[in-house]
Amino acid sequence: MAEDPDPHVFNHVKKELVRMGDGVVSTLEKSWCDHDTNEYHRNRIFEIIREIQVNDIKADLEKWKASSTRDLLKGTLIIARFQFPHLDFDVVDAELEKIKQKVWLEINEEHTAFEIVKIFNHVLFDLCGFCASEDSFHAPQNSLINAVLETKRGNQLSLSILYSVIAQKLHIPIFGIDLPNNFILGFMDEFQTLKMLGLDKDERNVLFYINPYSKGRIFDQNEIENYLKSHHLPIRHDYFVPCSNTDILKRLIDNLANAYLKVGEIQKVEELELIRKVLA
Q1: Partners of 210 in the beta sheet?
Q2: In angstroms, how far is the first alpha carbon of the chain from the final one?
Q3: Phi/psi class of residue 35: alpha, beta or left (left: φ > 0; alpha: ψ in -120 to 50)?
Q4: Between these two residues, 64 and 195, which has the higher pLDDT value?
Q5: Do 234 and 228 meet the contact criterion of CB atoms below 8 Å apart?
Q6: Separation of alpha carbons 204 and 275, rounded Å
Q7: 140 membership: H or E segment, kind and range
């Protein structure tokens, strides 16, 4: 067995390689796969690769946070690179465009908001086959949009992100609502119809709510109130209106951290905590 290198030497080499960034990852990966590389050195190489990858995610999130749009899909894909570092964003976007096209072919300007959601539900859940992942609910892949597109299985958050991203590609105002231990969508009242009719007294400005985890079931604010009461939670305004894309990414990171914690991958939990701090 090879002797452990001087830790000071290793730390210096590691620091330099990390500073060089993504450009050295392919070389490090080749060394990791080399049959002559022993287990100890493979672990060291992997440690360096992971630090570079985590730093890249943090840097991309910094740019995302500073952008004017804070695009939900882009932010979601940046987080997905934590599990899939070589993820091709264009491939994922192309798959989403196919689904968007199927929805677009079915809708027209005459459809009501309710009818549009019915079409969405038919395309996503009947034609494309997306559904709730109940058997492996906490598995990390259930939170990542590229994996959800492949397996057709997701949790409350990932299915809501998928639904919302496609809606926004079609300029349909469906946005995420962050509930305690749950996540849903709201179809926004763009033309303030409810307010004109005197039906939206607290200015929530939401026509109705959608639960993608239940195949797009539509419901009203009374059900949210009942949910909060049944869990002894306060009736807060922000539980009825869309949250920011930043809040969605925070929730996504928390979901991933919880998934890794359940299987004892503490290092990944710690890495995600560092990534989450970027969005604080």
Answers
A1: 185, 218
A2: 44
A3: alpha
A4: 64
A5: yes
A6: 32
A7: none
What's the CA gap between 191 and 154, in Å, rounded?
Answer: 32
Q: What is the pLDDT of residues 3-39, one digit of tens each?
A: 555 666 667 677 778 777 777 777 777 776 765 666 7
- Tokens matching residue 98: 């196919």
Place of tokens 């539900």: 121
Where does the chain show beta strands of DSSP type E?
Answer: 131-132, 153-154, 174-179, 182-188, 206-211, 217-219
* Dihedral (CA of 216, 217, 222, 223) sign: negative
Under 8 Å CB-to-CB from 204, ≥6 apart: which residues?
221, 237, 240, 241
Residue corresponding to tokens 């604010």:
221
Beta strands in 120-261 (DSSP E): 131-132, 153-154, 174-179, 182-188, 206-211, 217-219
The residue ranges of every structural domain in the chain are 7-66, 72-277
CB-based contacts of 126, cutoff 8 Å, min separation 6: none
What's the pLDDT at 2? 46
Comparing CA positions, the residue from 149, 142, 140, 158 lying closest to residue 212 is: 158
Residue 135 is predicted with a pLDDT of 74
